[in-house]
Amino acid sequence: MQKIRFGEALEWNLNIENPELLKGFVPSFSLQPLLENAIKHNIFTKETPLKLMIEQQGNFISVSNAINLRNAGETSTKSGLSNLAERYQLWSGEETIIKNNGKLFSVSFKIMSHENSNN
What we know:
There is one protein chain. By secondary structure, this protein is an alpha+beta fold. It has a single domain (2-110), classed as Heat Shock Protein 90 (2-Layer Sandwich). Helix content is 24%, strand content 27%. The chain has helices at 2-6, 31-41, 80-92; strands at residues 10-15, 50-57, 60-66, 97-100, 104-110. It has a five-stranded mixed β-sheet with strand order 1-2-3-5-4.
């Protein structure tokens, strides 16, 4: 829906190395907030689009985007990412990998083989 809303100002790419891993599980509503955060916190236009990448790397799924932060705007509680990481850790027993090198922001987590991974 966001692609319809933003048109050419928003680009995305989905890269899956091993389609067999698509049978695995990630927590419900774990990818959506990452994509929404990228849209919320970055400036993008048709001339300089926001490029979102969702990719499978080994047994991990990663969501990343180039950083072009807004100067001001919507206030943030800054709790979305920490809530997601905490929920994922409780669900899976695994850590969320968050990287920010100033140019690229990414969040990765392991794809689990069954829905109730920590049980």
